Amino acid sequence: MDSLGVGLGAGSTGQVNLLGAGKKVEEQGFNSPNSAAVGAFFQNTYVGQAGGSGQLNINGAGLELVTSEGNIGSTSIKYFAVGEGAGSTGSVNVLGSGKLASGDPIYKNTSGGGTVLPFNFIGKAAGTGVITVQPTTGSYTNQADFYGGLSVGSTGGNGALNVLAAGKSLITNGMTYASSPGACQVSSPSSYPLAPAPLQISADGASTGLVRATGSSAQLLVSGKTTNNFNPTPAQLVQEHHIGRIQIGSGGTLVTADAATVKVGVSRLLAQAPVGGSMYGYTTNTTVGGMGPINVTGAGSVVYGSETATATAPGTIEASQISLADATSQLRFNHTSSISFNLPLAGSGTVVQQAGTTTISPTLAGLPALDPALWQYD
Predict the structure, then answer these.
(1) SS3 of 113, please?
(2) 221 and 260 in contact (C-beta within 8 Å)?
(3) Integer distance in angstroms from the first to the last C-alpha of the chain?
(4) 75: which strand partners?
(5) DSSP structural state of residue 112
(6) What does the pLDDT look like over 238-255, one tens digit per residue?
(7) Could you tell me which residues are beta bridge partners of residue 27?
(8) Is the dihedral angle over the CA atoms 36, 38, 41, 46 positive or is it negative?
(9) Which of 298, 280, 171 is nearest to 228 (CA)?
């Protein structure tokens, strides 16, 4: 299918239900007969656009949306947007062991196009959008992966991403190839630019964005350029462009609650058994957190527990530091437990203790331990 549009135009309403029996992550790849691939290098994909209302339910199926800077040799930019334009509302639900992948991590090397990221939007241009990875109750994890970056709330929009119990979401700036593992930003800045943060929450002062990971075993994974390998044995070099960041603007909030985990670092793709002889059987094999920062500006916030008045159990964050750039930037503890917070802190922001017991003792613990069989750090 060349493109997908659900609820396009003022006053329009649309709903698409994509049904299946539940997908393993190995069945998520492009060209897999177990999944549907939608998109062309000449079409954007919308759920709720230009004043319309759209809903997409991915129930037990696999859906891949092709987004990128365009075909090889093309400068056109194609993206995925949920809720774009004033009066627009869009929603996406992933459930029943369903899988959503937006981007083209497989057959397109985006390493030279870092400055045009992101290619995925929730709540764009005064629109309202929400994507929810529903609680996993089936045999396989509900999962939503965004290759080519994700902006939650941009250009006056209102966006939300919810990753619920046992669900997973991977956000990365795309893929690099293993043909030159020693290349890095310093040695080749044109090929490996320091791209914008893969996850942007409230990308400008006029937008609002909420990213919430909540529920036991829920995972939000953020990396820079994702390394890959056809062979699981050789170690991969971790370079600057591989390491992820989260950027939170004045209207943005990141929440970790109820035993969920947020990891900011580097992910590794691995070629699983190809489907139908194709080369597109990539899955996320390993993610190491604790290597990348969370940067907060303006009145943005990071919350352990609940962003509402009612406290809830906290989650965890693995990051290299949390930077509160401005006096109005906040790190908030509103939980029902007793936790020890030991991430490095930077900036001139405010630490707010609302509920629970929090011991704050930031440390410079260094990089996380890397498995020498899988990773090397430059």
Answers:
(1) helix
(2) no
(3) 42
(4) none
(5) G
(6) 888 889 999 999 999 999
(7) none
(8) negative
(9) 280
